[in-house]
Each structure stands twice: as structure tokens, then as C-alpha cells.
Design a protein that fits this description.
This protein is mainly α. The chain is built from three helices and no strands. Helix 1 crosses helix 3. Keywords: Membrane, Transmembrane, Transmembrane helix.
């Protein structure tokens, strides 16, 4: 049972790393105007969600009157997931 959970965690961790790499490659890869528009829209939406998430973390820390503890790996993983999902959605919407 422990080996199965360890394997599942390893696969999940690998998937998150792949999503991070996909995000970086899609941001750096040049393309035509339509592809750039799709990446810009996905990036703007991801930035909006990331900033909103940080604002919620700040409000939560103020309300609970305790120090902010943000795990950067979790934050990066969530941002990568949101970016990849929004990139797929905008690609479908704009026909890529």
C-alpha cells in the first residue's frame, strides 16, 4: 500500500513538473499573431487568478493574526495548472 501511494505521488509530482515546463516553453516559443493572442490571454487570466489567490492569502493571514506561510512549490503548481487549462480553453475558443 505504501509503495502504491509513493508511486502515485511520484507520478503526480512528475506531472506537475511537466506542466511547469510546458508553461515556460509556451511563453518562450514564438508564433504568429493568433498564437501570441492566445498565450497573452492565458497569461493575463493566470496572472489575475494568481494575484487574487495571493490577496486571499493575505486577508486570511490578517484575519487569523498569524504569519503568512506560502509554499512556493504549491503556488507554482497551481499557477501552472491554471495556465495550461486556460491555454487549452483559449486554443479551443480561437481555433488552434
Amino acid at each position: 500500500m505504501d509503495n502504491l501511494m509513493l508511486i502515485c505521488f511520484g507520478i503526480f509530482l512528475l506531472a506537475l513538473i511537466v506542466l511547469d515546463i510546458v508553461m515556460i516553453i509556451s511563453l518562450l516559443k514564438p508564433g504568429d499573431e493568433r498564437k501570441q493572442l492566445i498565450v497573452w490571454k492565458a497569461s493575463a487570466f493566470t496572472l489575475l487568478v494568481a494575484v487574487f489567490g495571493l490577496v486571499i492569502d493575505i486577508i486570511e493571514a490578517i484575519v487569523k493574526v498569524e504569519a503568512m506561510v506560502i509554499n512556493p512549490f504549491i503556488k507554482l503548481s497551481v499557477i501552472a495548472m491554471i495556465y495550461c487549462i486556460s491555454l487549452l480553453a483559449f486554443k479551443k475558443k480561437h481555433g488552434d
